Structures are given as C-alpha cells and as structure tokens.
Known about the structure:
By secondary structure, this protein is mainly α. It is built from 20 helices and 3 strands.
Amino acid sequence: MTHNEAYAALLAHLKTTGALEQVAEILSWDQEVMMPEKGDAQRTEQMGAMEQVLHARRADARIDDWLAAIDDTKLDQAGRVNVAEARKALHRAQRVPSDLAEALAKKCAAAMGIWAKARAARDFPAFAPVLAEIVNLKRQEAEARRDGEAELYDVLLDDYEPGQTGAGVASILGRLRDGLVELRQNISASGKTMAALTGSYDGAAQMALGHDIAALFQYDFAAGRLDKSVHPFSSGSNGDSRITTRVNPENPLDCLYSVIHEVGHSVYEQRMPAEHAMTPAGHYASIGIHESQSRMFENQIGRSRAFCGHLLPKFTAAFGDRGLTADSFYAAINRVHAGYIRTESDEVHYNLHVLMRFDLERALMNGDLKIAELEGAWNDRFEADFGLKVDHAANGVLQDVHWSVGLFGYFPTYSLGNIYGGCLFEAMQTALPDLQSNFAAGELAAPIDWLTENVHKHARMLTPTEIVTKATGRAPDERALLAYLNTKFGALYGF
C-alpha cells in the first residue's frame, strides 16, 4: 500500500467515524431537550449500541496498517494532526475493552435522567448509587488507558486539555486563587454593595431576548437553534451547532448570560474550517480554548459597561420599565456576591466554584474521597470558601450535569478558559482600539472576526499554548485575567 493510498483510506475512515460521533451527539442533545420521559430505556440501549460501533471503528486493526504505510514527512499540517490523533485514539481504544466502553455509555445515558429527577427533588442519595457506578467505571477506564501518568485523574484530564496534569492545573489555579482572594478582600473592605434585579420576568420574553442577543453575537441560526434544558449546553459543529438555556422567572440574567456563554461555544464550532469537518484536524483545540470563547463572550464582552449600555434598552423593551439606569443595570449584572450556583456566579467567585469541583473530582478519581462523603465534603468546602451553608442539594452537589455524564476532568477547563480568554482579550484590545465603541453600538462583527482569525480557524492544528502565544506574543498565564478583574472591579467598588 502506498503512502497516498494509506492516508486516503485512513481519512475516509476518520470522516465516517466523525459522522457517527456527531450522530451520537445528536442523540444526547435530543435526550436533554426533546425526548419524551419514557424514552430513557430505549435511549440507553441506543447510546450503548452507538458506543459499540464507535469503539470498534476506533480499534479497527486496519488503522495500524494504514499508519505503518504513511510517511509523516509527506503530510501537510492537517494531515499530521489527523495521523497523530488517529494514533492516540487507536491506543486508547485498544486499551479499553469494548464491554467497558459500552457499559460506561449505557450508564451515563441512564444517569442523566436519574440526575435530573434527583436534582428536582433535591435528593442526593437518589443519585449517589448511579454516580458511584460511573466513578467506578471511569476509574476502570483510566486504569486501562494509564501509561505512566502520575494520577488516574491525569488520564481523564488529557481528554479535555491535552498535555495538562492535575498537578500542573493545581499550580496555575493556585496562583489564580491567590489573586482572587486579595481581590475579594479589597471588595469586602470597600463596604459597597450592588442591588440585584428584582421582580418577575416572563419566560417567553426571556427566550425572545436571548434569541435576539444570540444573533447580535454572530450566532448563525441557519446552522443552529436555541432551546431550553435543565442545564445550558452547546452541541454539534460547523453547519449544525445547537445551544440551550434555561428560564428562571426571578432571574432573567441566568437565561440571557447562559445564551451568550453557549453562543461563544457554538460560534467557535460554526467558524472552524469546514474543509476539515469530521476529521481530528477540524476538531477544537481543547475544552480550555472552547471555554475561553464562551467566557470571553459572556464576561469581557457581555458584562462590559459598554455592552450593558447597549443591552439596557433591549431589556426594557422586553420586560418593561424597571426603573433601571445605565449604572444600576451595569452594577446589577456585575455585583459580587457569594451565591450557590456556578453558572450564575460573578467573575470574582466563579473560579472558586471551579477550584472546589476540581479538587473534589480529582479526589474521587484518585481514590481519596468516597461517594458517601461527597455531599458532606462539598458542603464543608462551600461554607469555608463562600461563607454560606448549602441549603439543599440542588444548590450544592447536584447542580451540575457533568458528573452524571462522566465528564471527569472537565471542570478545570473553565478556569483555564478564563486564563486563556484573559490573554486573548488583552491582545484583542490592542489590535482593535475601537473595541469598547463597538460594544456600545452592539457591533460585534469585528471582535468576533478577530477571534475567528486568531482562534477559530486553527481548530486542532495548533495546541492551546500555540494559539494563545501566536495571538498574544507570550505564553498563557493568569496575569492578564487578574489585571482585567482588578481594573473592572476596582472601578466598580472604588479601590
């Protein structure tokens, strides 16, 4: 077999596998958004069947033959990425038994419904047994794939942030934490407080406004849709990238900023190079880079004073005159308070939420924490970090969907995304001197085009560090994010 024949065969195989992965993703989206309640059992079997097919394709013995015949020196950048990722996926698939992969897929599919019901009932013991099974299966998976990693957790973290380790993440997040603690102290010492929005806000009006704001942020509705789910998420890529949000009549900002956050994810997916769709080269660089887009959309753009000024008339048109001024609206959107819910938290507390989850899931995977101890550990840590007692499990250990679907290693990517986003936004401000004027006018094409040029178009053909370094001129670290936070909240709270 010639080099050209081998690479053509591998690429065709990868594209079909990628298409089937997208089918599985649509099934997951449907389960959270559209599927009738009695569909859980069927969906569990469907997801298990899909995982069997995918596992067999990833472990296909022909891949070894194709890889052996391919000359890496004859490949372009995309080709080299495709080959490297194919080797990595083959290694993983050969290590993980097919019955384990199927069992994990089935258990996660079943667990999602159990989690949603337990969350609604505020009943962690109802969810704990299935979570224990998922943790056990993920530990088995990590053991099977382990290849010299220091921790079981490192194996899973690599799925979302290639090259990172638990110890490495703990180091960079520890430095971030030091800066956040100082910032919290300065805010507290200021003695200033910001009033929250009050009253009731129509759910249909929230969704309509969310739709309009999504379009403002360059979300292509011809390649996506907006729906409601228990936990907001984005799903899909290129010509089919969907988003969800949720509605709280007492907090319209939850819906609105969840939309902006998920749009950040989906715009990234919609704008990655279509010529590499359904191949590893056309995949996102990492979840951290993904989160850099969503968090920047949500915070540096969406919560800026300039954009809040543009948003207020739209907000008033949607919900009526609530007596808000530009200053009071901006203050309400950016008020610092120690709340229970990660997705509703302010920029100062957000990373403390993430750090807690990172530490807990790392301990679970490494065998240092038992499921029976998890709710108590969560509540103790939350009270220590936030000064609040958790009132019920839906505001505590049951609030996030991630563990129910086996996403161990995902949480630290939110903070890494904040760090990457801080670096990228600093560079964007330098490159686009009219940026704040653009925000004030609701003209977001220029900044989002800048992100497309510097982030989106690279897909997985550059590493996260390479993407940030190429765009900013230096390797990513926490300094830009902390400078941004201190400037913003120093102005708000007068220090």
